[in-house]
C-alpha cells in the first residue's frame, strides 16, 4: 500500500514537474545549472558512490524502495524536495484524495485511488455492506454477470464471497425488482448502478426505485454510503445524487460489450 501511495505521489510529482518545470523549478530554486550537470553524469559513475546509494533507499511498512538507479545525487533530491514544496505537491495530493476536480481540462475528479480503499466498507448505520445489487442492462449487465459466473469456481473468490449476496437487476419488471430486494436489508446493501451513458431508461428507473428504497429506510444522506456508479457520464451521475467519490469512471472509448474489461 505504501508503495502504491508513493507511486501516486511520484506520478503527481512527475506531472507537476513536466508541466511546471521551467516556471517552478527555475524560479523557485534557480538551479538550471544543476540540470545541465546531472544530464552529463553517467549513472555508472553515480553507482560507485556507496554513501549515495545507501542514502537513496528507504523502507516503509515492510516495503523497500531503492531509487539509487536514477540519475540523481543527494543535491538533486534536495532540489526536488524544494520543487515539491514550491509546487505545493502535498496540497495537490490531498486535493486528489479529497475528490477535488483537479483534472482541469475535463473538469473532473481523479479518484482511481478510491479503487484501493480497504475492503469491508460499512453503510450509514455502521453495519457491514454484505449485499450488492448490480443495476444495469445489456453490456452493463452481461459484463458483471460474466465476471461473477467466472469467479464462482475460483476458490479464493468463493471464500471472500461467503455470507455475501450479489443480485442483478436487468429489466424493468416491477415484480423482479420487488423479488430481488424483498429479503435484503438496505442497511447492509450496496447498490451499484452500471451504465456507460447513465441515460438508459430501464437502468435509470431501477436506480431511482432503489434510491427511494434506501432513502425511505435510512434517509437521504445514506445514498452516499449505499450507492455507487460505474459510468462515463460523471455529470449525470452527480446530478442523480451519487457522491462523486463513489464513481468508478471509465472512458467512453470502452465499448459496452467490453464492459467486463474495466471496473464492471
Ligand atoms: O451502459 P448503458 O449506457 O446503460 O447501456 C446499456 C445497454 O443499452 C442498450 O441495450 C445497448 O444496446 C447496449 O449496447 C448497452 O450495453
TrEMBL record:
Q: What is this protein called?
A: Glucose-6-phosphate isomerase
The EC code for this enzyme is: 5.3.1.9
The record's listing under InterPro entries reads: G6P_Isomerase (IPR001672), SIS_dom_sf (IPR046348), SIS_PGI_1 (IPR035476)
Q: Which family does it belong to?
A: Belongs to the GPI family.
Which cellular component, as a GO term, is one annotated location? cytosol
Pfam families, from UniProt? PGI
Superkingdom: Eukaryota
Which GO biological process categories is it annotated with? Answer: gluconeogenesis; glucose 6-phosphate metabolic process; glycolytic process
Q: In which pathway does it act?
A: Carbohydrate degradation; glycolysis; D-glyceraldehyde 3-phosphate and glycerone phosphate from D-glucose: step 2/4
Q: What class of enzyme is it?
A: isomerase
Task: Supply the alphabetized keyword list.
Answer: Gluconeogenesis, Glycolysis, Isomerase
| Source organism of the structure | Oryza meyeriana var. granulata
The GO terms describing molecular function are: carbohydrate derivative binding; glucose-6-phosphate isomerase activity; monosaccharide binding
Q: Which residues form a coiled coil?
A: none
